[in-house]
Write a sequence for this structure.
């Protein structure tokens, strides 16, 4: 056994006794406040995850609580067995190594430390999220999947612990499994689905805007009868009430949100006049041209992306045919965005934890997709996610590393 961390206060005696069997033991002689325990854990586990030695990771944890004013006896203590050099003891495997290493399954102390789970589907979505959350906190291996850990600003000088997962394939089925694994492994207080989506032609939503899901409509089951139009079963799911209140309250916190678009790259150009750039029924193309002219025509006023909140449609089908949307719109009006994954996450999270889709608009159905807008929409969704977390949508967990004595 290389390392044991005692998840309680007043454990110096137990730590000393364990040294007979364990190379390194972290314990505490007195008591410690929850916030200080949390800060130590972030520094300590983050160092271990970045392949620092046990000694260096311990010093990182101590540095994280250096301003707490604790007596030395009330600080976490590292005890090392005779003959062991903690400066040379590295627990995390080298990801570049070709050898097969045994993975460690989820431990309760790690499980309780994660506040937010972020699920991404595409590689560009995954890297966009990591780029706006640069504070690394290691890598955590659960029962079936590996999670990249990041610290995120939660306002008032405090931090969320965030686990970011990139699923292997598109589609609601794989997303359902990935979301279930994330919740089982980490028990986050909130699951976010962050990435790109399509949108219907609209006066209010344009390319690069960000849509927050107030409700989800799944268009997966359909029934067709000879001589009749296809119909869709569209069970609707609404946000957790507390989370819905947070989203609604954003409209009154524009000053707190600040300019969340300030770090975005220049917006790509939009063209729709060349042959083959529009597709779909003629009536759809006419309406789409009018909306595009409204947003991008010569008399339009350019603007940066905005966020809007409203219904999202989710389906296992990759929507490229505008005609497919006609029965959808008839079933659920005011749909703002369309994706393939949010429905699966909602089913996995239902009655277990709140979930929210944060979708950057990368295409308008009926307009040929542009890769430049896909990249921009990934960045837009990630940038808003960072700002949304600063609004502290869920409480920061307190039960992390060490518990107060009863």
């Amino acid at each position: 056994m290389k390392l044991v961390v005692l998840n309680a206060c007043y454990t110096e005696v137990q730590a000393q006794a364990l040294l007979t069997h364990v190379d390194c033991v972290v314990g505490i002689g007195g008591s410690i406040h929850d916030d200080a325990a949390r800060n130590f854990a972030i520094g300590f586990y983050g160092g271990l995850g970045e392949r620092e030695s046990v000694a260096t990771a311990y010093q990182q944890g101590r540095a994280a609580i250096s301003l707490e004013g604790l007596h030395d006896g009330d600080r976490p203590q590292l005890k090392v067995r005779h003959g062991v050099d903690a400066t040379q003891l590295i627990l995390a495997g080298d990801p570049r190594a070709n050898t097969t290493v045994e993975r460690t399954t989820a431990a309760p102390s790690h499980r309780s430390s994660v506040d937010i789970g972020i699920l991404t589907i595409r590689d560009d979505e995954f890297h966009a999220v990591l780029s706006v959350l640069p504070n690394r906190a290691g890598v955590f291996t659960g029962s079936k999947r590996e999670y990249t850990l990041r610290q995120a600003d939660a306002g008032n000088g405090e931090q969320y612990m965030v686990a970011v997962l990139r699923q292997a394939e598109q589609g609601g089925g794989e997303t359902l499994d990935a979301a279930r694994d994330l919740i089982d492994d980490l028990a986050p207080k909130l699951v976010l689905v962050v990435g790109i989506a399509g949108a219907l032609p609209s006066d209010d939503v344009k390319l690069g805007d960000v849509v927050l899901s107030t409700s989800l409509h799944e268009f997966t089951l359909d029934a067709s009868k000879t001589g009749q139009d296809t119909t869709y079963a569209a069970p609707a799911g609404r946000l957790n009430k507390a989370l819905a209140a947070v989203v609604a309250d954003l409209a009154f916190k524009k000053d707190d949100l600040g300019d969340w678009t300030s770090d975005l790259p220049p917006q790509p150009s939009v063209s729709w006049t060349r042959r083959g750039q529009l597709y779909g029924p003629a009536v759809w193309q006419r309406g789409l041209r009018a909306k595009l002219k409204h947003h991008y025509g010569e008399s339009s006023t350019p603007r940066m992306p905005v966020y809007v909140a409203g219904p999202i449609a989710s389906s296992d089908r990759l929507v490229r045919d505008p005609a497919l949307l006609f029965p959808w719109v008839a079933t659920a009006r005011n749909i703002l965005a369309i994706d393939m994954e949010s429905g699966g996450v909602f089913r996995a999270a239902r009655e277990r934890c709140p979930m929210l889709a944060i979708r950057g608009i990368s295409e308008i159905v009926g307009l040929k997709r542009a890769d430049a807008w896909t990249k921009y929409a990934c960045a837009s969704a990630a940038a808003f996610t960072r700002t949304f977390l600063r609004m502290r949508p869920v409480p920061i967990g307190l039960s992390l590393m060490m518990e107060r004595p009863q």
Remarks:
- The two ends are 29 Å apart (CA to CA).
- The chain has two domains: 3-88, 108-390.
- The longest strand covers residues 190-199.
